[in-house]
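pinging the channel bc i need a second pair of eyes. not urgent but kinda urgent?? the chain im working w is below, pasted from the shared doc
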Amino acid sequence: MLGIGATMGKIFGSDKAITSVIDNVSKGLDALVYTDEEKAGDAAKDRSAARGMVIDWMKSTQGQNLARRVIALSIVSVWLFQYLSCMALSVVGIWANNPDKILASAKVIGTFAEKMNGAVMLILGFYFAAPYMGSIVQGAMAKFGGKHHSPKD
């Protein structure tokens, strides 16, 4: 037969059970609080993982480096030619006797060059600002899609 203390322990819980409940409740409350230090540690882990993914991707696609460079050079060359042509025609149009057709041509070429700005931004970002590609890609995609967000959006 169990003593009264043992019976009460089973009904209300023993010291060991109470200690276990207290430990579990305190761990649960601690998990609810996400400190700045924990946030910073998690952010650092995320950045490190992202860098590792980029490095792994670059290693696994090294055979495509030449193709990437040729495509990038082609796109940037076309954009630069359009930009410089637009600029030259605009300057010539100022001094020409009948500038309407020259300036109209400059406007058409400039419009096509402007449509390539997003692609050129991505290329320059990839080669010269890889750690900041997230914000560059967002800006370039907005440019490609023709979405210009105002500060109120």
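so Residues 89 and 103 are 7 Å apart (CA to CA). and Residues 65-95 form the longest helix (31 residues). — does that match what u expected or am i reading it wrong
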